[in-house]
Amino acid sequence: MGRLGFATATIFVALQVILSTALTARAQLAVGQEGTSGGPRVVLGSDPKTSQRYVQVTGRGAPVYPTVDIACDGTRWTMPLTRSEDGAIYAISRNLVETMLNAVECRLFLPDQEITLTRTQLWAAWGSATRAAGAPQILVGQVVEVIDGNTILVNLGNRAETVRYIGINPQEANRSPRSVEPVVGEAAEANRQLVGRQQIRLELDAQERDREGRLLAYVYVADRMVNAELVRRGAAEVMTVQPNVRYREVFVTAEQEARDQRRGLWADPSEPTTPSAVEQTARPGAEGRTGVPPDGVWACPVPQLIKGQITASTGGRCVYHLPDGAFYSTVKPERCYATIEDARHDGCVASRR
């Protein structure tokens, strides 16, 4: 081999070593950011065995702090040291992970500096947890739109996904699977009340997508599984499709409860599904009613901004929603009121949230 050939081979081997080292480091470090003074490096990662998220402070000569603080959108937490292997590692609880992912900006406070953790970095590191063998895959996202009784559009940070609920079939089921237009109906309304604009967790099962490419998931708001709650309310029935059967017994139990209580789909057809005769008598006649009709499908006119709504999920009762209420933006008003007294005079009761 000539000198030129030997030099070329040497350069090729060196490049292989450099690329291999870079790729290995990249696989180990989910997200990193140098401190403002070029000091410790901060890494956001997940334990491959437990999916526990953590913040790691590492780097040559990086000190091990017994605690560090994190602040997100003005709220601050102190985190104790979890372990000190390969730098200082601080485990993050599930609730704090969700808070951080939903924040506009977070900051990590070390004794001698502060480091900004951008939302892009947080989502890249923690938006999709690393799965342990046999453990379900969990995704964290934000509901963008409720399409129907068991379909939602979710922002997963780096992408938007259409998500279909596993194991249930809503009342408004006769629609094209390719349709993305929001549905108006009792199941869709119940779904909007549960997940509209909420931070959610998605738990995947054996089959991750359907034939239309939609993500299949068990959907959680806090600790409540929305799939099961819709069945329990009678807004959907059980629909088991292999191989996604992890919570089939939960759904069957919820449906039996809905049947026993004659809710929604299982209401006795001989009984009224609209307000009872007593409630209708109590409600003022058209000429004596307070409030005004809505200004379009979703809005109430100024100054009658309080929304009154009647659905099967409220038992046929009128429920009023204030502008600062949790469900206000998801409510399609049947009547609009200027004051709480007007709403109550028209037979409405306050929303629980």
Question: What distinguishing features does this structure have?
Answer:
353 residues, alpha+beta, OB fold (Dihydrolipoamide Acetyltransferase, E2P), 5-stranded mixed β-barrel, 4-stranded antiparallel beta sheet
What does this structure look like?
There is one protein chain. The longest helix is centred in the first third of the chain and has 26 residues, at 3-28. This protein has helices at residues 3-28, 94-102, 119-126, 186-195, 226-232, 248-260, 277-282, 340-345; strands at 31-34, 41-46, 53-58, 67-72, 75-80, 88-91, 105-110, 113-118, 138-148, 151-155, 160-165, 168-170, 199-203, 215-221, 224-225, 236-238, 306-310, 318-321, 335-337, 349-350. The strands form 5 sheets. It has a 5-stranded mixed barrel. A 4-stranded antiparallel beta sheet has the order 1-2-3-6. It has a 4-stranded antiparallel beta sheet with strand order 5-4-7-8. The protein is globular. By secondary structure, it is of the alpha+beta class. The protein has 3 domains: 30-126; 138-266, OB fold (Dihydrolipoamide Acetyltransferase, E2P), CATH 2.40.50.90; 277-350, no CATH class. Helix content is 24%, strand content 28%. Helix 2 packs across helix 3 (119-126) and helix 5 (226-232) runs parallel beside helix 6 (248-260). It has 8 helices and 20 strands.
